[in-house]
User: What shape does this take?
Amino acid sequence: MTARTRLLRAGRTAALATAVVSLAACGSAAAVGSSRPGTTRAPATRAPVPSSTSWHATATSSSTTSPTSTTAPAAPGLVRGRVTVVGDSVTIDAAPALEALIPHCRVVASVGEQWTAGLSELEQLRSEGQLGSVVVVALGTNGPVTAAQFAEMMSALSGVSRVVIVTNHAPVAWEQENNAMFRQEVPRYPTARLAHWNALVSAHPQWLYPDGTHMPIGGSGAQAFAELVKAVL
Assistant: This one.
């Protein structure tokens, strides 16, 4: 093979390699996608949330005065000024809005969270000296809650300045039973208040995904959820 032939073959090999790299780059760009004039993207759909998904936010402060209009002094051992929110996947949807709107808010929520699991988390936070003087309970979507379980929750939150119970909204058999129980039991406790999420979102179904339960993070529903909670604090 002459030197000239070797040079020609080397040049063709280099050109082919360059073309392959260019095509790969174009393929990557197409996979990512970009908006082009005259084209319309299909609206994004909400992917199923993994069962391990959770939200454990860090409070911004533990020594400020309470940002809420509470009616009773907090018991010793509670973090004055902190708002602890315990919830499930619906609460995860609203978590960024809650933290942005309510000062010193800490959200502890997990997908599929049951009432008893939320109670255990609050008890653990209290034992560690991390429970806020104000607590929001947004549980019940994933299973029925009895009056006895509600009483157990309120006993565990004894000494908390304000306890906000958020009503459930989901196409499940126990939704009405849970909400009826909340309406009956909350007035029995001077520090407890009811946030009527079910009534509010029922009037605005467009806030929710087609599942009738969850909502886009950062959307109108998440903002309304946070504003409702803040108004009841």
Q: What stands out?
A: Helices lie at 3-32, 89-101, 115-127, 147-156, 175-185, 197-202, 220-232. The chain has a mean pLDDT of 79. The longest strand covers residues 79-87.
